[in-house]
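ok, trying the design again with the full structure, not the truncated one.
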């Protein structure tokens, strides 16, 4: 760890470069061993000074806005775009950049599909497997605005090549394996027609104690059952998990009737 007293300008995000390289080595090895693709999610980390290193490991990047797509495109070979709803004024530019575009609803797909030239198109689905305890943040809760339900997809619409799920958050391999089981249960009638399946974020493969053996065995078994599908994972945190820290400075100490508050140059 760098001596924080050596940091002369605060606040500062400090990246431990060797820790980053260790994470990237593991992810690169998993990609090669299992023949899957990891995408880097910009919303989890956007320190573009190390984008070249991330791009040398990740198969591509995932963007949830035009600005993220513009930031990623000079560095990453592929840019995968998904937004719960696309701004009309931005979609044309996103469509020029993205190699893969996922729509949250059939309405969005039919509205924008004719504006796309060359990108592979997908739909977000609700995997019906919850891992988030707070209903407000659970994308699989009843009435969720995020993703289609099985009864809305009796068949795969013409032009759709992939499906996308996102229901995990800093999760273990057990939840990933259970998500695959739920997908096969509820969307099995579509899987043999897919080109790709994006399993979203939340796969914290670089966290100490993550069950990599279960991850490997679950992925291998799924690929054996569905050899037509290319699997994408798009973690943000896993690439940079425990690779840095925030250095701040105490500017003042305020005491008031038993309460002590540190006034920092980041916040209080």
């Amino acid at each position: 760890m760098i001596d924080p007293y050596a940091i002369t300008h605060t606040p500062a995000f400090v990246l431990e470069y060797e820790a980053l390289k260790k994470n990237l080595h593991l992810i690169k090895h998993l990609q090669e061993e299992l023949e899957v693709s990891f995408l880097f999610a910009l919303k989890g980390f956007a320190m573009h000074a190390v984008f070249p290193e991330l791009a040398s490991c990740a198969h591509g990047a995932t963007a949830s806005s035009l600005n993220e797509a513009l930031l990623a495109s000079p560095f990453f070979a592929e840019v995968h775009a998904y937004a719960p709803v696309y701004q009309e004024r931005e979609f044309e530019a996103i469509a020029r950049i993205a190699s893969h575009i996922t729509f949250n609803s059939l309405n969005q797909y039919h509205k924008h599909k004719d504006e796309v030239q060359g990108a592979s198109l997908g739909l977000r689905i609700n995997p019906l497997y919850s891992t988030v305890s707070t209903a407000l943040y659970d994308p699989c809760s009843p009435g969720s605005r995020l993703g289609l339900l099985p009864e809305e997809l009796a068949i795969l619409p013409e032009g759709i090549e992939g499906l996308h799920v996102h229901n995990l958050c800093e999760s273990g391999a057990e939840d990933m394996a259970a998500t695959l089981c739920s997908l096969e249960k509820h969307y099995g009638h579509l899987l043999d027609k897919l080109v790709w399946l994006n399993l979203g974020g939340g796969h914290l493969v670089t966290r100490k104690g993550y069950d990599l053996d279960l991850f490997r065995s679950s992925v291998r078994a799924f690929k054996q059952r569905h050899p037509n599908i290319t699997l994408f994972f798009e973690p943000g945190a896993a690439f940079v998990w425990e690779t840095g820290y925030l250095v701040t400075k105490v500017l003042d100490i305020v005491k008031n009737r038993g309460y002590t508050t540190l006034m920092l140059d980041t916040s209080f």
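Keeping the full-length input from now on. The first strand starts at residue 12 and ends at 15.
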